[in-house]
Write a structure and sequence with these properties.
It is built from 11 helices and no strands. By secondary structure, it is an all-alpha fold. The chain is globular. The structure holds protoporphyrin IX containing FE.
């Protein structure tokens, strides 16, 4: 009875998201091995990995607004996982770019980062995601203290903005797809700003968000 009470609700949620999110990477690998990635397999892999990174990053950002709007708590429990998966895809995206597209020529990578604005902003997004991934554990929350940790995790917002700008600037003609992500991100940021303002108004300026208990339990990797 007691163990049934302690059992996490929706126990399949985390594993389900993990398998579902890793499936596209496995599919890219299998298609690459069988030569089914099209005429330009490196560009195709690069784009698919980048898109997955963006989708997962935006999904991780949707967790708090979903709770604020609908009172759902389950998205908060998978927020860290979504953020880490986004980082994993961004790392694979960068690895394919630096390793396969640029042949590990670090001079060429550096030249691209400094000369091409869409690469520069993508690189910025990636750099901003590093501290988020490094401090995503409950131990990091305890070590840093909740307030400082939450401040660091606010980097997820500029990271997502840079990722969307990277997508917008990469696309030369048809802006519809990147603009869908830009609109979703703008809506999520709006919900976030309004819910923080309402919470501050209710608590007279305080309001620690999800709270240190949730954060220390490891369920709250991105503020
Ligand atoms: C060092 C960091 C990065 C570099 C060097 C980089 C580079 C690239 C390159 C070369 C492309 C393909 C351009 C083309 O084929 O014309 C691309 C596309 C893309 N990247 Fe990145 N990127 C970086 C970081 C990121 C990050 C952090 C995200 C998301 C979180 C991201 C999301 C995307 C998306 C969504 C696309 C377009 C996908 C599509 O067209 O379907 N990138 N990136």
């Amino acid at each position: 009875m007691a163990s049934a009470r302690r059992r996490s609700p929706l126990p399949w949620l985390g594993p389900g998201i993990l398998v579902g999110a890793l499936a596209p990477a496995a599919a890219i690998l299998l298609r690459a091995r069988s030569g089914a990635l099209g005429a330009n397999p490196i560009a195709e892999a690069l784009n698919e990995l980048g898109l997955m990174a963006l989708v997962l990053l935006v999904a991780s950002l949707a967790c708090s607004p979903l709770r604020a709007l609908f009172g759902w708590t389950w998205p908060i429990r998978v927020r860290r996982l979504l953020g880490l998966l986004a980082f994993a895809y961004a790392t694979l995206h960068l690895a394919v770019y630096a390793g396969l597209d640029q042949g590990l020529d670090l001079g060429a990578v550096l030249a691209d980062v400094t000369r091409r604005r869409f690469i520069f902003v993508g690189f910025t997004a990636f750099v901003l995601m590093i501290p988020l991934a490094l401090t995503s554990t409950a131990a990091a929350v305890r070590r840093m203290g909740y307030v400082k940790w939450k401040r660091v995790h606010a980097l997820v917002y500029p990271a997502a903005v840079c990722a969307v700008v990277h997508f917008v600037w990469r696309v030369k003609k048809d802006l519809r797809e990147p603009l869908v992500y830009a609109s979703i991100l703008a809506a999520l940021l709006l919900v976030r700003v309004v819910s923080v303002a309402l919470r501050r108004a209710r608590t007279g300026g305080g309001g620690a968000g999800s709270g240190p208990v949730a954060a220390a339990s490891g369920s709250n990797a991105q503020a």
